[in-house]
Every structure is written in structure tokens, then in C-alpha cells.
Design brief:
The structure is a homodimer.
Chain A (H helix, E strand, L loop, with lengths): L2 E4 L8 H10 L4 E3 L6 H10 L9 E4 L2 E4 L1 H12 L6 H25 L12 H30 L11 H16 L1 H7 L4 H11 L2 H9 L21
Parallel strand pairs in A: 1-2
Antiparallel strand pairs in A: 1-3, 3-4
Helix pairs in contact in A: 1-3, 1-6, 3-4, 4-5, 4-6, 6-7, 6-8
């Protein structure tokens, strides 16, 4: 089975959650987002049946799977990227969906009023939204990840081996560390287990080749996680 | 297997997507949200392992499943609430996740800056957010549901029989019809197949007892879908 990943070019965005799982799982795939531009992507999407609502989507033979968490579930069921039992399987998926929620909130901070308008046109609202996100939302979400790791007691979110949820937590911490370096620095003391997962993922032998390849895309102000210094704060 | 649904009392919210699936599937459950208050709910949640991030969650023996779409996937796999093949299963889930996205956006319209603050304290921002939501987001999402129904050609989103995705689309249309009656009226001409699904779900024999029971909770300004006339518009 050969997979094709379709996503916006040049940004990690939601596609990177899928790339990390494909890479760590040793799953062969063709990254179409590196080959085509946004227009070709939209043309391809419009021709799919069933048509995905938006990128990313994964083409697997006759199948076309969209929504990041759905794609990860699909890959995990086929390639064992999470525990196979009902409890672990649905726990990994629950965590992934919650990571999607905070990632979406992180996006909405710089686009609180209109996702289709420029940040500069909603900056006053974004300043207010950033305060709420830093002071209440980040501690609440990260407190939950920390609790899960305490309850797991095994160093990873869903047990003694990494799952796609751990890879996604790594990407979330990386993204928010880029966007909110000052806030993440003050949060650090409260989330040692989360930061341990970040370090463990960074050191995974399964990801060494990917990290060394230069293929991993950097964060920027065109993406989910954006660094606007005025939105950060301790 | 006896299920317990835990959610905030007195509001349909995200819990209603699950209730509709349980009711239409003829699945026995105990609705704990009708029995306990918010404090008891929070106490119960804090004692669960793994602890859910937020309600709703479903308790099934030793299992505790959270995140609405995850719960629906779990129930569907056990009770056949969507096609069993890979394509249909992941299509239903993709649709559910996209319905979750628009429901979240509908919530963010009246809370664009801070979900923890009052609507009245972010009304100016909400007026701007509502315009973008009505003019661009609602047509984009509903256009996609309409396209899926055209592609399906069978009257339901995932084939010739209803799935939990159709029930959720019904709930979404009901909710947005409550919140934005003027906008939904002008959109109606463009989404005949979506409105047909709404009518079909309303007439499902499997749901007749539930709809007649008086147990179905009404929308209000304490919930996801809120009617603030100043946010509506044709």
C-alpha cells in the first residue's frame, strides 16, 4: 500500500502531525505537499469522491481520508501506532482530538474575529484573546496532559511505548514553544512529564533520519503556531 | 453492557449528538446529566482514570471514553451506526469531526475573545465575528455537506441508511436554525439535500419515542447554539 499525503506546501501546520506518525512508524508515503502548489492541491481536492472538506487528506489506493485525527486513527489501526485494545485506542484518539482543540485555539488567538482576514486587522482583539489563552487555556490543557502522564506512570501517554498521541504532544509543545517562548518558560516547572515526552520524542531512533533530513518544515507566521512577540507574556 | 452518559445538566450542547445516536440506535443508557448537577459531574470526572479533559464522556463498564466524535465512533463500532467498511467508517467520522469544527466556530462567534468571559463583555468583537461566520463560514460548510449528499446520491451522507453523521447534521441544522433563523432562511435554497436529511431524521421511526418523550432539551443562551438577534442577518 502506497500512501499520498496532500497538504498546503511549505508549512508544517496540521500536516506535520501526520508526517511525524508516518515517519516514526516507518510507513512509506509520498508527500504531495512538497511537490505541488496550493492551486494544484485545490484542484486535486475538488476531484476527490468523497470530497474532503479541507487538507490534509491521505490517499490510500481507492480511499481518501480527511481530518487529521481521522487520518491518524486510520494509520494507527493499520500500522500499530497506538495500543490495540479498546481503552488505549480510544484514549490515544481522545488525546489527539484534544490536541486538535488546543491547536485550533492557538490559531484562533491570532485570528479571533475572522480566519479569512489578516492578523493586523484583528490585532486589538488578538491581544485580548492571547491573554485568556496564556493565563487560562494553556495551563488547563497542559495540566491535563501532565495528569494523564502521571496516571500512565509509564513515561508515555498511553503506556510503555510511544503512540501517535505522544508524537502530536511533541509537535504541540514545539509549536507553542515557538509561538509563546516566554509563557512556555514559566509553565515549564509545572509540566515536567510533558517536557520529558518532548525530549523522548526528539531522541526517538525512529525519527532520527527524519530530523536529520532537512525535510521537517520550520514554523512561521503563515501557519497554525505563529510568533507575534506582543501576544506572548510570562 | 450498560452505558452512562455524563454531561452538563439542562443543555443539549455536545451531549445531544451522543443522545441522538444512543436513541436512534436503540442503545440502553443512563443519562447521568439529568440526575446530577455540575459539581457532582466535576467530582466524578476528577476521579476517572484516565481522566477526561471535559464532558461529555461515556462510561462503559471499565472504559471511560471522552470527546464527542470519539464516543460516537466507539458506539458506532459496537452497534452499527455507520457503514462497517473502512471507507464509510472513516467518512462518517470525517463528517462528525467537521460538524464538531463548525459547532465550535458557532460557539466562538459569541465568545471570540475569551470563552471564560460573558458574551456581553465581548459583544463588539462578536458582531464582527458573526458577519464572517454568516457570510463565509456557513456557506462553505453547508456547501460541503450538500456536495457530499450529491456525491452519495442515496439520500443520506454515507449511503442508503442513516448514520450517526446524519443525526449530527440534523442537530447542527436545528442548532443553527435556532441561532441564525434569518441566515438559515436565505441559505435554504442552496441546500435542499441537507434540509431533506433534517426532515428525514425528524421523521425517523427510531427517534419517534424520544422526540415525543419531552426528554429532548431545548436550545438556550447557555449553550453552544445561542440566539442573539443582533448576530443574525440574512
Amino acid at each position: 500500500m502506497s500512501y499520498e499525503l496532500w497538504y498546503w506546501p511549505d508549512v508544517p501546520g496540521r500536516g506535520e502531525f501526520i508526517r511525524l506518525a508516518l515517519e516514526a512508524g516507518g510507513i512509506g508515503y509520498r508527500d504531495r505537499s512538497c511537490e505541488v502548489g496550493g492551486e494544484a492541491l485545490m484542484r486535486d481536492l475538488a476531484g476527490r469522491r468523497p470530497r474532503p472538506y479541507a487538507p490534509p487528506y491521505l490517499v490510500a489506493g481507492d480511499l481518501c481520508i480527511a481530518q487529521t485525527a481521522n487520518i491518524l486513527l486510520f494509520l494507527s489501526d493499520r500500522h500499530g501506532l497506538a495500543p490495540a485494545d479498546e481503552a488505549g485506542r480510544h484514549l490515544a484518539h481522545q488525546i489527539q482530538l484534544t490536541i486538535a482543540d488546543i491547536a485550533e485555539e492557538a490559531h484562533d488567538v491570532h485570528h479571533p474575529v475572522d480566519a479569512g482576514a489578516y492578523y493586523e486587522d484583528q490585532k486589538a482583539e488578538a491581544l485580548r484573546a492571547a491573554e485568556a489563552f496564556r493565563e487560562r487555556r494553556m495551563p488547563k490543557y497542559f495540566g491535563w496532559f501532565e495528569t494523564l502522564l502521571e496516571q500512565s506512570g509509564a513515561g508515555w501517554l498511553t503506556g510503555a511505548r510511544w503512540s501517535y498521541a505522544d508524537l502530536s504532544l511533541f509537535q504541540l509543545v514545539e509549536g507553542l514553544g515557538y509561538a509563546y517562548p516566554r509563557r512556555m518558560a514559566t509553565l515549564a516547572a509545572d509540566i515536567p512529564l510533558v517536557l520529558a515526552v518532548r525530549a523522548q520524542v526528539r531522541a526517538l531512533p525512529e525519527l532520527a533520519a527524519y530530523f536529520a533530513s532537512g525535510r521537517r518544515l520550520g514554523f512561521s507566521e503563515e501557519c497554525l503556531f505563529r510568533h507575534y512577540p506582543e501576544l506572548d507574556g510570562a
